[in-house]
Amino acid sequence: MITKKIILIEDNKDISQLVKLHLSDIGLSVDVFADGSKGWSSIQQHPYDLVILDIMLPGMDGLEILKKIRQNIKTYCPILMLTSRSSEMDRVLGLELGADDYLTKPFSLMELVARVKALLRRQDAMNTSKPQQQKIIFNGLSIDTQTREVLKLKIKLELTAKEFDLLLYFARHPGQVFNRMQLLDKVWGYGHEGYEHTVNSHINRLRGKLESAPSSPEFIKTVWGVGYQFNAKPEEK
Fold first, then answer.
1. Cβ(33)–Cβ(42) under 8 Å?
2. Would the CA dihedral through 190, 177, 139, 135 be positive or negative?
3. Inter-residue contact 174 to 232 (CB < 8 Å)
4. Distance between CA atoms of 84 and 235, rounded to whole angstroms?
5. Which of 54, 102, 192, 230 has its CA 20 to 30 A from that of 16?
6. 58-72, 125-139, 142-156: which has the minimum mean pLDDT?
7. Does residue 127 register a pLDDT over 70?
8. What is d(CA 134, CA 236) in angstroms, rounded to the nearest whole number?
9. DSSP conformation class of 187
10. Would you say residue 40 has pLDDT above 90?
11. Beta strands 149-152 and 220-223: pairing type?
12. Which CATH code, of 3.30.70.2860, 3.40.50.720, 3.40.50.2300, 3.40.640.10, is assigned to 5-128?
């Protein structure tokens, strides 16, 4: 059995020692860094199965590290953010930049372990699920599920990791209507109650890149009072 490898970037020594102890107790290998720049350097050099990331860090803050991971690390890795109770804007920014989950300090170590297990199970399920078609093609739109490349009229769209995940989820469920909480649960992997506006901002940005006329969208339709619907049928091969 291959041991899962975690990186924890946290400058509070007491928290990092306790987190490492509890994660080691469930069989995980944990690298700990107190400096953001050193943690990012390690992420560039080593493959990790999960990143646990504080926001307030010396060297490089957690949001900057999160942004760099999603822009530069090709293999998708789940990220759990640690935030202070007063930093709601940081939590929103973290979710929008591609964090998979967050915990507010002070947190229960049992809760943290449960969240880590859930994120690792979700990642394992994604890796071992039966292969789906590599390309999903609509009228003028091509989504490559392996390279995560999206072409609109043969022009590549520059999407963030979460924008791609959101588009792919819609594309795999054409015609279905999803409310914001359902999309948070399915795309972000956790029911972030109170953060439904994260979905709104992602959809607005995705429309800006995907739609010829974002104010009158062709693909991602708003179903008033309900949610959103992907309004296209894949081409038959």
1. yes
2. positive
3. yes
4. 47
5. 192
6. 125-139
7. no
8. 14
9. I
10. yes
11. unpaired
12. 3.40.50.2300
